[in-house]
Amino acid sequence: MRRWPGGRRSSPIHSARVAPLCARNTKTYTSVESVPADPLAGHFAHLADVLPVDAIVTNGAGNYAGWLHRFYRFRAPGSQLAPTSGSMGYGPAAAVGAAATHPAREVFAIAGDGCFMMTCQEMATAGALRAAPDGDRDR
Ligand SMILES: Cc1ncc(C[n+]2csc(CCOP(=O)(O)OP(=O)(O)O)c2C)c(N)n1
Q1: Domain count of the chain?
Q2: For position 64, which CATH number holds?
Q3: pLDDT average, residue stretch 97-115
Q4: Given the CA of residue 118, which atom of ligand 1 is nearest to it?
Q5: Is residue 86 part of a domain?
């Protein structure tokens, strides 16, 4: 392992500035009230309160995904679809596939404006498959 001057295992910058932040961010958030005062944290924490445990949540690549992964609580196996390759636009397309595959489960896609613009044409596929984006298939 690389050693920094003085025998440190991590760089002085990491020790002084990053490590305390990492320690703070290992906290588990269990309710909307417990998340930090952050413009988006509460929204993503709230999602776990209103979506069913087995809801399928999809996302693509973008800064927004950081809030999802930090503050949404995935509570069931097979409840996340996300790109291992970091591909933008994956969320809406994956949501259509998930809704077609699991018609009884609620599916929720998260996308930034950039991600959404890359695959928003899949809304036509959702319509053709009658995979209602809001989970209401009776309308
Ligand atoms: C297909 C593809 N093109 C480009 C990128 C590089 N890239 C990663 S995130 C990003 C911007 C994402 O924008 P948006 O979806 O609006 O999310 P935000 O970062 O604004 O939250 C880009 C261009 C990528 N990951 N995948």
Answers
A1: 1
A2: 3.40.50.970
A3: 95
A4: 1
A5: yes
Distances 23 to 3, 20, 28, 29, 138 between C-alpha atoms, Å: 22, 5, 11, 14, 47
Distance (angstroms) between ligand 1 centre and the Cα of 114 equals 6
- Residues in CB range of 127: below 8 A, 6 or more apart: none
Within-domain flag for 71: yes
The domain in which residue 67 lies consists of 38-128
Distance 86 CA to ligand 1 centre (A): 9
Task: Kindly report, residue by residue over 51-87, the tens digit of the pLDDT.
Answer: 999 999 999 999 999 999 988 989 999 999 999 999 9
Residues near ligand 1 with C-beta < 6 Å? 61-64, 86-88, 112-115
pTM of full prediction above 0.85:
no
**End-to-end CA, the chain:** 61
Ligand 1, atom 6: nearest CA belongs to which residue? 88
